[in-house]
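Bug #77: duplicate submission created two jobs. Keeping one. Sequence:
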Amino acid sequence: MLQPNPFERYQREALRIALSHYVTNGLSAALGLLLIAGSIHLLLGEFAAAAASVGVVVCIPPDQPAPKRGKFWQLLPAFLLGLPLFWAVQVLHAAPILLGLLLVPASFLAFLAGGWGNRGLPISVSVMFAMVFSMAVPDHSNSATNLTTCLYFTLGAVCYLAWATLANALLNARYRVQMLADTLMALATLMRSQAQQFSPDTVDETGRRAPLVGTLLQQQAALADQLQAARNILLESPSTLRRQQLADMLMAVLDMRDHLLVCNLDLDTLKNHPGHEPVLSTLRDILAALADEIDALADALMLGRAPVPFASHRPQLENLQWGHDSTVSARGAAPTPAILAMGMSSRIGLMNDDSLRLVALARAEMAPNVDLVRANWQLFVSPTVWSWEPFYALWRWNAPPLRHAIRAALAMGTAYAISLALPWGSHDYWILLTIVVVLRGSLAHTLERRNSRAIGTLIGCVLAGLLLYAHVPVGVLLLVVTLAQALAHGFAVRKYLVTAIAATVLGLLQVQMLNAGPSPVFDVVERMADTLLGVAIAWAFSYVLPSWERGQIAALVKRTLAAQARHARVALGLWQLQAVDNAPELQWRLARREAFDSLSALVQATQRSLSEPRAVRPPLEPLGRLLALSYQLLAQLTTVKTMLLQQRGRLTPQDVELPLRQAAQAIEAALGSGSLPPQIGTPATPALEWSVLGDPFDGDLSPWLLRRLQLADHIARQLQANAEQVLRELAAP
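Kept job's structure:
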């Protein structure tokens, strides 16, 4: 296919960003801010609107695309925790020492919200925003004025809770499409990387092979995270035909991910065998073309258009020349490359069929599998209730959320003390705000935000300085604040540099609206200096009570092994030889999700460790092998699962029932107990010895199944050996 020129490519990327769910969500939040602050400004005046806008800003961080059910409760903690702290800061406004004594323990409690995981981080930010922006409110001399300010804050927050809940419900249909489109684009990216694997190995400057394994692992992890975000919205209440179509398309994406994972099997054998370069080149081109077609489908969904159908690649696959060795291989010998190439072609053919199915569903030319969709929706949507249970395990010295909360509280206390000693201490909250948004639980994320915050602040200060120097009307400032809020919220996770620029403009103008200073230009200079100081403090305290990734790797490795063992037990269940029942099928899907999620967490932790000092990094080489072997084991078991579900009529039950049971027990013993089982295929287990491998498209598939079981067992033992090496090196001083 013809590649678009750079301008067309950038134009397409810009359009995708503009139509994305995070931009839509940012615009929704900003519109809510504009309507609420503007209405209060007309009814109650400028100061009331400014104070109410703080209540809105406090409730915005946890406002993300979410299922309709539980949306209000997702936002409520930000308001309930933020209001008393906003009031307390108002009361202690004129007592800096007492305010500092409040700030440190309150910051500790706020950052403890990290115990809720990714859901808790926005709550931490919201609570800190409540205190920091309360410090920006002008001084008051009596409790009645403080109470009035808090009432304005409450009015803004309550209005936004209602707005966000309603907007999320109204945008639910759009969010479903956008989430699916994002998932399709993540899948297409992974498909292109996999297609590159079909090319001859490239060589780096040192003359060594430069495989794409690291890139594939990161993209697999990214796709796993995107899939869960999509599940939460797409699988909620699939009660209409359109919702069922979109949910069934998500199920098809899951199938395509499985087929794509299996494409790695036997690839090295084929690449090392002369004469198969043309076949691999054709398979690479077909896979890349399928990726382009998936991208085109995603673009059509984002634009609200019916996707253009594409021609099946089946004829091209059927015309491939396999050579003359595709019939049989000797007993106990490795299958011939031609047979392996035929298997590879079959997997890509299944992906071709799934792509056609996706387009047909999008065009409403195929009925969705309603039973499958309804069976999945309750099990695969993340819980929306808040629970105190995650905090029960935090009270140990090496718990990362606890250490991060202590670290953040110390950083905030230090920054506040420094701000009081500065000669320009009139805007001490700027340093604190920088620490809130820069300091993260991992050094990798802190360093990333450090750089973006410093550069973004300088750019944002220039933009805000021009606006303040020009003395633009309040109405114009409100519009700029609205746009800045949209960008700051929308890109907080995707591109923090954009958020840093927008947040700087937002912060400067928000403070100017709360309490206009005598010298806006000097405020901008202060902002630059305070931001750089805050960045330096956050960076320094990221090394205080650090939670190095090394300390988390052991638990993640054990979780990965347990997930792999459970997936093997469920995937090799004998029930599949008789019929597909929803209950065991759902159990397999749950086991598969946990296997991918555990690997995603381990990949991300390993990637973050690369930013840490060399002395505390985990053993990267055995970790890399462990991750690669884990995906290989998933691929082997997925192939077995496909045979059991789709080809059981070509299997001989009496030949495979015992091997299935033995393989499941052997893999679970290897990965679960830590002891290595006897090798499958040895005289101790002769039933698992595969014999003659015939044409996989004709005849009994039992020998092929036995071979996959043998390879899966071999990989499981290698996986356990690498895991033991990782754990030994992690335990070493």
